[in-house]
Amino acid sequence: MSASVRLLLVDDHAMVRMGFRMLLEAAEEIVIVGEADSGEAGYRMQGELGADVVVMDIAMAGIGGIEALARMRARDPAVRVLVLSAHEDVVHPRRALRAGAAGYLCKRSAPEELLDAVRTVAAGGSYLEAATARRLALAEHGGAGTVEALSEREFAVFLKLAHGASVAAIAETLKLSPNTVGTHLYNIKQKLGASNQAELTLIALRNGLITL
């Protein structure tokens, strides 16, 4: 790859960003143009800096990575986003790919795999590590789970509810009215067969979407 790749790092842990920066800067063709610690900041900086590739976590405070990814892609369809996440379930990669991610890689993957993934998505390809691809294939074969019945917005609200956030806090974070969040909450409980927030947390735990 002869042309340089302008890359933006988005992760809410400074030490994690430092490790990724050190690894990626070892590749001569990769230029780190900026770092962000939230989905909101990542969305803003990608627009300001015109990064070609965004390496982004999805479990962050605020709007989170998947919402930021969707917004980036809506504004600039050419941007390539590689999701780098600690989540090893099937729901998160599915949601990320549906939102327009060019690849999904688990943080515990070998360092050289991150370089391969960045080079692949920068060149216009898609990247899924073998373990994630295998889990997705098995899940497709076995049928979609009930969480898959949620819309993208409902899923974002569901995760925040599962973490114990209030309707008012979710409304403020996602820039929605409390009534809209309340409607999403009602629909989520109907689709998942839950009667309260504690049951939503248990469903998220069973699906490997959160840890306590």
Structure description:
This protein has 212 residues and is of the alpha/beta class. The protein contains ten helices and six strands, in the order βαβαβαβαβαβααααα. Strands 2-1-3-4-5-6 form a six-stranded parallel β-sheet, sandwiched between helices. The longest helix has 15 residues, at 178-192. The N and C termini lie far apart (42 Å).
Main attributes?
212 residues; alpha/beta; six-stranded parallel sheet; 53% helix; globular
Summary of the model, kept short:
The chain has 212 residues and is an alpha/beta fold. It has 10 helices and 6 strands.
- The Cα radius of gyration reads 17 Å
Strand content: 5-15%
What distance separates the N and C termini?
Answer: 42 Å
Give a count of the beta strands, DSSP E runs of length 2 or more: 6
What is the chain-wise order of helices and strands? EHEHEHEHEHEHHHHH
Mean pLDDT: 87
For the sheet with most strands, the description reads: 6 strands, parallel
Instruction: Classify the helix fraction into a percent range.
Output: 40-55%
Runs in which pLDDT lies below 50 for 5 or more consecutive residues are: none
Q: What overall form do the CA principal axes indicate?
A: globular
Structural classification: alpha/beta
Number of helices: 10
| Strand order across the largest sheet | 2-1-3-4-5-6
